Amino acid sequence: MLPELKIAQLRHFVWVAELKGFHAAAEKAHRTQPAISLSIKDLENKLGESLFEKRNSRTAKTELTPFGKHFIPKAKELIAHHDRIAQDMALLAEHKTGHLRLASVPSIASQVLPELLLRFVANTPDLHVSCFDDNSDAVLKMVENQQVDFGISHLFHAHEHSDKTFTSIWEDQIGVVCPCDHPLADKEQLHWRELRQHRLISNGTSRLLEDSEASPLLGDSQFYISNMISLIAMLEAGIGITTLPWYAFPKESNKLRFIPLESPTVTRHIGIVQLSNKSLSPPAQAMIDFILASSQN
Q1: Interatomic CA distance for residues 5 and 64, integer angstroms
Q2: Whether residue 263 is found in the same domain as residue 180
Q3: pLDDT tens track for 154-174
């Protein structure tokens, strides 16, 4: 059976060797000299060999045996490895290191997360963050497959996701997005029937209309574009109009207009999605707590 070596005993051994005496090692360890002697004796018994030569009463010097000289670099290696692991785990527990993986719908990933992440990582320079942006269905799939610690998305048909926990944080209203020179651009609000006479482009967020009276619009769409960059390009080119939540509207565009859809009023709720039966890593839990605290300010 292999001996079980205690880190404290290894430290005592290294200190006695480096400081050339049990008394100095005892002072460094804040222990009594007999306690250090017992610690070294127990370590020698476990190893089956003496680590120090018999002490010279005239010089009181402590010298390593040949076995002790061979063992000391190994002891230092074990101590260093232990300390690295202990430090890594302490930092992980304080969310100052590790790897945080999250997935988010593009609207939050582009308009909300940059500022949140900037503030969150300000005191965690060694924390690695991987952020994936995709539509809600893809985000939920990444959460299910445990590719990410948690997701930020809308939860369609929540009753179908009993394995997940959803915490609502943000909400925005659905509106119509059209070019600034479009016939609808001067409207202050719109009824869904007004859209039927225009070319419609559906997208990943169009599902939000499914359970509303505006659901016929889904069948009226001539185009479907999943990628947000491509969708904005198509809209700016005047190919058609679409519906988008407010957070997804490209505020930097001077070619597009957002008009609230008032009949019906459709609100999207976005929040944290995580598996109900899976514990989060300390960095992931800290990030969620940070998001929740920030949303209340």
Answers
A1: 19
A2: yes
A3: 988 777 888 899 999 999 999
